[in-house]
Structures
1.
Amino acid sequence: MTTQSDAIWDSSWQASLRLKFINKDGKTFLTDRTHFGPLAVQKPFYPEQSDCCHVVLLHPPGGIAGGDELRLDVKLDAKAHGLITTPGATKFYRSIGPIAKQEQRITCAEGASIEWLPQETVYFDAAQARTITRIDYTKDSRVLAWEIQCLGLPAQTRSFQSGHIFQTLELWQDGKPLLIESNRYDGSSPLLTQPCGLHAAEAIGSFLIRANNETIEKKIILDILEKHPELRSGCSIIQDIFVIRASATYAEQIKTLFLELWQTIRPIVLKRPACIPRIWLT
């Protein structure tokens, strides 16, 4: 006899994508893009110097439902440089019980640089979701990575009133954990509205910067944060990692802040001006 849970599992998407970037003669190539299920990439783009490869992740179903499981595995060989983004928001739909899972792991070899710049993740009311992003790097790697979470659909006045979200963001250097940030959001929790919690903010973001030997003055970051008083934001330093956190009513407000930070910090960390991914402009 087929149960309702069996039917949901049979209709769920199981997908994985493996990407590998290598540096050959000063140019970064995408040499592996093995995928299973509805998770893939467009062709590599080179809108700037050829040693930086831009890649856009594609998830044709358009959203992640209960029971879906997506896995992304990215490896960058020595001195490779990859910029990874998405064409639009990642959406987790409501679920009557099964958990939707998304796991993303990025591994940087010696001297590699990763820019992990996905657009926001939106959790619909009653979503059941678990996400984890882990970035492993060496002492000579450079990391510019952000993630933005949106609880509900505030622009449509549809808040996150039920459901459960478990979200983890990790940084590991040479096999040792430097940052493990885990958050749980329960739709029924008073922490979503209380001052000691999210204070009714429905968008939350973290921006991680690891610059290797380049010097970043914290004042540069704080000056940018002060230009956005509509957000609650702050910057902390964990060893040589800058961690910028922000909360706001709308994800777009955090995206605007993070974009300004990226445009300012990228020339310092990567010695090149910011090059807006073309997909953001379409």
2.
Amino acid sequence: MIFKDISYGAHERNILDLAIPESAGRNDGMILIIHGGGWNSCDKSAHDKDVEFWSSLGFITATMNYRYVSAEIHIPDLLDDITKALGFIKERCAENGHNVEKTMLMGGSAGAHLCMMYAFTRSEEAPIKPSVIMDYCGPVDFTKPDFLIGINGQFEDYKYGVISDCVGRKITKENITSEESRKALLEYSPICFVNENTVPIILGHGKLDDIVPFNQCEQLIEKLNSFGIENELIVYENSGHALDKDPESVEKSREICRKYAERILKNKE
């Protein structure tokens, strides 16, 4: 069963796609894919092929749109959208005979950031519990200069603008070092919320990424390891942010994701 462009909320961006394969177990978990695009662009349709791929392996799979950040809409509102989407998915799956209690959150860039923020800060209220994360090139620490400026500086003005919308506070070159700005940036930096209860994380990152520098994933891994959290890194040696120069790494990340999904979502320890 495939449901396309179904509404899960009142906003025009509150739509999702959901695939429920016949081979899915009645008590299996599901995969939710959250698109990137700098928190203010792109669309779930970018993951049509991913929904097709994962559902062909027998996983209930969904991909969602969410409200874009703006002067009025900030990261907590996007996390609210994820809660609404998961609640809708749970109800629709139940109508079709599936009791879905666990999800793998999968995303790239801004989508990966939302996956981590949701799993790290909203797990208690989640209608379907985040149980594992696939993070492709997600930013984890908004305070780092090389993230805000970028490797070559070409994204600096854009990042100050969109990060201001993300956190709901005007962040500028002049006030970036203030206590108020740092506090706001840390509040939406996933690395700050890692603890002993953090779920397993798979990371895929381009070594040449000039939008979310590679050292962001290295910092996260160090924090995860300090709490003994299961994690696995796939390095895309020749790729930038698009992860488009290492086809063997694409296949490796899919295989690792499949193994985690089989183990955690289908309870095949």
